[in-house]
Amino acid sequence: MATDAAPPFFFESLTVLAATVASVPIARKLGLGSVVGYLAAGLVIGPHGFDFIRSAVEIRSVAELGVVLLLFVIGLELEPARLWRMKGDIFGLGTSQVLLCGMALVAVALLGGLSLEVALIAGFGLALSSTAFALQILQERGQLTTSYGQRAFGILLLQDMAIVPLLAMIPVLSPRGGETRGADIAIELGITVAAVAGVVLAGRYLLTPLFSLLARARAREVMLAAALLVALGSGGIMHAVGLSMALGAFLAGVMLSESSFRHSLEADIEPFRSLLMGLFFISVGMSLDLPVVLAQWWLVLAGVVATMVLKGVLIWGLSRLFGSSNSDALRIAVTLPQGGEFAFVLFTAAAVAGIFGRDMLTLLIAVVVVSMLLTPVACLAHDMLARRLQRHGVVTDAIETFEEAMPTVLVVGFGRFGMMVSQMLTSEGVEVIALDNRPERVAYARKLGYRVYVGDATRPDVLEAAGAGRAVLVALCIENDKVMGQAIDLIRAHFPEAKLFCRATDRVHALELTRRGVDYHIRETFESSVHFGRAALAELGIPSDRIAEIEEDVRLRDRERMELQMQGGPMAGADTLHRVTPRRGGEGEDTTSETPPETKR
């Protein structure tokens, strides 16, 4: 019986998935990181390996969307005020790095006998580091939010913007390029500024109302589609005017970083970003032309050594000049010495313009790929050396893989109960991050100045994005007992170090929380009921010392009843409800009461 043909790219997809599953765990087990595993997988299945897949170009065109989504997620983590504080790293350190590294590599290329045009393209192209590689390494190590991670990111962000003038340089250097008129440059600049302004304004004033509207539909897949549309759409706008797609997605992410949907968007997009980033690294591994590398290994080796050593030394020196400690400067230097993905774009455009031939293009791409391959190895070697020196007391500023410790509390559920809890905590300066699944409630709380985000407490990825991993305490102030039970199980499984404080809706729920072993719980109306009773007794003329006796006894009997109910069920200990509190000093020894039935709870 005849069977239908397999869908397009079916065999290629199976091959990529199988190679990933086989290579990445091995690379991580060896301590090399997942990036090396992806590169090795691409090398094995590519046209210069076992030739399972013959072209890396089509795969890379799709996989580059992973870089776009990566920058969108990074943008979500950088609020505009925080980005403004990084302006020195972006425009000062970043610009200095591109110019100095570019000029140094141009000088090396000229000494190697290349023409000025080829040397300019090759030198400044190799001066750009790989955003994808560096950020993946920083994220895997949990170091993106450290001081050196943020400084490295500032350099990478400037490099993403630097690709624009570098691409504009190609028509000027091209032997068959015409004269570029000033009017044309002014028009292109105007279009670029308009595109950036459009993305910023749309992100600022349109996206939050859009996501608020979609959130009310309670359809997770629609929110996911909207998140992808925003990330890829903003990137597409930038690409249409000649800018980096990744830069457009980053701007959209920054504009949404102050939105209440920030953590939900990050959690929704993360699986797509991770998968596409892995595919991007595989495509890079596939593009390594082994015959060329082996035939001209001395040229490739010379290019890799010149690129990594010059960039490493200059980045270290510039980082020190801009205020980094010696250890931070070294970590930045070993994270950013490689060539980057934008070099592929620049070198290909230069080859099309006739600045250099196919052999030079292949050689330069080989230098970029090999430098990428060696970067995780350099990071691993640096870490091993730093730890050894630290053990021998040679260095005192040890490698930090975490942010400066400070107490953080994650409040889940931001109704009247959660808001009062947060007010108590923030009054002591404790950092509070809150989640709630009702957009209208979140919008109201944010108007009051609280950091509240739309999020589902039954999703571990959302809790992770919101900071549950670094929270010392999670306060579950949820009104739904079933949802709270699911959240408790997730937090115990994924964030076992966090203390669990819970709001009990009633006595039965309090018993359930006791059985679950949460660290603290309280019935939502217990304290207010006690205070209400105090006020009523005072109004009836009961002395304050007698009221204090009664309150102490009621609290004691409540604890006793809870213990009895844990053993005998909800009705156990009912007799403790109706005792008259004995007076201290022996007065009023009667311990029973003829309390009317209608007063029983």
UniProtKB/TrEMBL annotation:
Protein name: Kef-type potassium/proton antiporter, CPA2 family
Lipid bilayer topology: Multi-pass membrane protein
Entry keyword set: Antiport, Ion transport, Membrane, Potassium, Potassium transport, Transmembrane, Transmembrane helix, Transport
GO BP: any one term: potassium ion transport
PANTHER family per the UniProt record, alphabetical: GLUTATHIONE-REGULATED POTASSIUM-EFFLUX SYSTEM PROTEIN (PTHR46157:SF8), K(+) EFFLUX ANTIPORTER 3, CHLOROPLASTIC (PTHR46157)
Parts of the chain that traverse the membrane: 30-50, 62-78, 90-111, 118-139, 151-173, 185-207, 227-254, 275-292, 298-318, 339-357, 363-381
Places the protein is found: Endomembrane system
Keyword Transmembrane: yes
Domain RCK N-terminal: residue ranges: 406-522
Gene Ontology molecular function, alphabetical: antiporter activity; monoatomic cation transmembrane transporter activity
Principal subcellular localisation of the protein: membrane
Gene3D superfamilies for the chain: 1.20.1530.20, NAD(P)-binding Rossmann-like Domain
Gene Ontology cellular component list: endomembrane system; plasma membrane
